[in-house]
Design brief:
- This protein is 37% helix and 14% strand.
- It contains eleven helices and eight strands.
- The protein has an eight-stranded mixed beta sheet, with helices on both faces.
- The longest helix is centred in the middle third of the chain and has 18 residues.
């Protein structure tokens, strides 16, 4: 077990700490209060949720994909979900994944800033660059999105930042950790080509996901003049990826996806009919293997 996984077993021996947590919850209950939800946390922090954020934060779903333009508010909304999950129960675990350690650390900074500005009743016990631990023993841990680093946890919420760039193996490794807890999964990203688990999950209607798309035109903080300037200066391909949330072919792709799909057909007879064994009876070697030659 790696050092990052040694804290996965919740501490249950701190009776004074549990009494403190119970006292906070008892006080809130006696005053007719509840632990703040994600929308309330944003509002306390002085942030007015956009309509799509409000809908996401108040809807009942198990898995959500946020295909959103840069600076559209997907990180803020997901940080509110992370903080809500950590506050709503004792011993909850929130995991934050990203392609690199730097990115997951930056996401945790967003959670920490929201906690500071929202000032919830549950105090902060310990913190570091990659971890937050609240007085109710809930933890928020930031990890690089690699298969070896995410195994061994049982989580109540998993958030994959820059999800289109998180390897398939890391995503697959997160699925069992939610099986017993009944936890939730959120993947947020801009597109990164027509490949990978994020693209498949977004485009496959048979998979059960809450899908949210927010383009730059949908964000009230982006003006049309700004978006047009971005289009002119960064080029159409990059603009469609970053602001229009379009899954496009990558620049290093040899054949266009449309051309590949157009070349495929179900109307052509197979090369071999059923019972191909009769075609594979020739066991003579292609070259003579006589050692004397």
């Amino acid at each position: 077990m790696s050092p990052s996984q040694t804290e996965t077993t919740p501490s249950t021996s701190s009776k004074p700490l549990r009494r403190a947590v119970d006292a906070v919850r008892s006080k809130a209950s006696s005053e007719g209060q509840e632990m703040p939800g994600a929308v309330t946390l944003m509002e306390r922090a002085g942030l007015a949720p956009d309509p799509w954020q409000q809908a996401l934060l108040t809807s009942d779903w198990e898995r959500a994909l946020l295909n959103c333009a840069r600076q559209s508010g997907k990180t803020t909304a997901s940080a509110a979900l992370a903080l809500e999950a950590a506050l709503e129960a004792t011993d909850n675990l929130v995991l934050i994944l990203a392609p690199a350690r730097r990115q997951s650390k930056e996401f945790l900074r967003s959670v920490r800033s929201l906690y500071r500005d929202a000032a919830p009743d549950v105090g902060l016990d310990k913190q570091s660059e990659l971890r937050l631990r609240l007085e109710n023993e809930s933890r928020i841990i930031a990890l690089p999105g690699k298969e070896g680093t995410v195994r061994g946890y049982t989580a109540d919420l998993v958030i994959a930042d820059e999800a289109a760039r998180v390897p398939d193996s890391a995503y697959v490794a997160t699925r069992p950790m939610l099986a017993v807890s009944g936890g939730r999964f959120v993947g947020l990203s801009t597109p990164a080509g027509q490949r990978g688990w994020f693209y498949t999950a977004w485009s496959d209607p048979s998979q059960d996901w809450e899908r949210v798309e927010v383009t730059g035109h949908d964000c009230p903080r982006m003006t049309e003049d700004f978006l047009e300037q971005e289009r002119q200066e960064m080029g159409d391909w990059q603009f469609r990826n970053e602001y229009l949330c379009e899954f496009q072919d990558t620049t290093d792709q040899l054949f266009a996806t449309d051309d590949i799909e157009a070349a495929l057909t179900a109307d052509t007879d197979p090369l071999f009919a059923e019972g191909t064994a009769e075609h594979l009876t020739d066991t003579e070697p292609l070259f003579d293997t006589d050692s004397d030659r």
